[in-house]
Specification:
Oligomer: heterodimer
Number of helices of chain A: 1
Low-confidence stretches of chain A: none
Distance between the termini of chain B: 35 Å
Radius of gyration of chain B: 13 Å
Mean pLDDT of chain A: 95
Strand content of chain B: 35-45%
Structural class of chain B: mainly beta
Shape of chain A: globular
Order of helices and strands of chain A: EEEHEEEEEEE
Helix content of chain A: under 10%
Helix content of chain B: under 10%
Number of strands of chain A: 10
Chain lengths: 117, 110
């Protein structure tokens, strides 16, 4: 059973950074682009960016460029999403998902990030 | 990069058909055959229902179907069932190698 298991909920202060991890079973991180998607409370899905299967390239939505870093450690089958300079607008659930553009079959369970002073 | 436009809500009685539209531009929906549709129940992660405009993953009932005409993609649910009540999002590949989601549609089974 292929799974993506994400790290637990986080509470951060404005201006801080958060790092969310996404651990994969099997070799799916080596086979697929890994995307990050977020969902603010009561709102829709928002695409953040992707990292290639071998981790050599990333691409992110214009609104996150300069503030998001996506990395992966293939030796432990884990991907990471780092978001800096948090504001209250960054509060929401963050998901990792494989190949969301081509029918993302594997989703993490989501990580709630709360930004509050 | 603007979200794709979907109706806020659609509804139907059990057994009826409903269609959700997803309107973009020639730089996303109209330019590529990479449109997916996701179903999301409250508190759950999304689930893919259609990919590459018309393809249905194994395990998805054949009453879900997808199509595209010009800059608008559509998801049709035939024979609506109670468990189909959920939020639905379209998703498209775009120029510059980005991805964009639709605004989301709440499907209500009357």
């Amino acid at each position: 059973q292929v799974q993506l298991v994400q790290s637990g909920a986080e509470v951060k202060k404005p201006g801080a950074s958060v790092k969310v991890s996404c651990k994969a079973s099997g070799h799916i991180l080596s086979d697929y682009y890994l995307h990050w998607v977020r969902q603010a409370p009561g709102q829709g899905l928002e695409w953040m960016g992707w990292i290639t299967p071998n981790g050599d390239r990333t691409n992110s939505a214009p609104k996150f460029q300069g503030r998001v870093a996506m990395t992966k450690d293939t030796s432990i089958s884990t991907a990471y999403m780092d978001l800096a300079r948090l504001t209250s607008d960054d509060t929401g659930v963050y998901y990792c998902v494989t190949d969301v553009t081509r029918g993302g079959k594997h989703w993490g369970q989501g990580t709630l990030v709360t930004v509050s002073s | 990069q603007s979200a794709l436009t979907q109706p806020r809500s659609v509804s139907g009685s059990p057994g009826q058909s409903v269609t959700i539209s997803c309107t973009g531009t020639s730089s996303d929906v109209g330019g590529y055959n990479y449109v997916s549709w996701y179903q999301q129940h409250p508190g759950k992660a999304p689930k893919v229902m259609i990919y590459d405009v018309t393809n249905r993953p194994s395990g998805v009932p054949d009453r879900f179907s997808g199509s595209k005409s010009g800059n608008t993609a559509s998801l049709t649910i035939s024979g609506l069932q109670a468990e189909d009540e959920a939020d639905y999002y379209c998703c498209s590949y775009t120029a510059s190698d980005f991805t964009v989601f639709g605004t989301g549609t709440r499907v209500t089974v009357l």
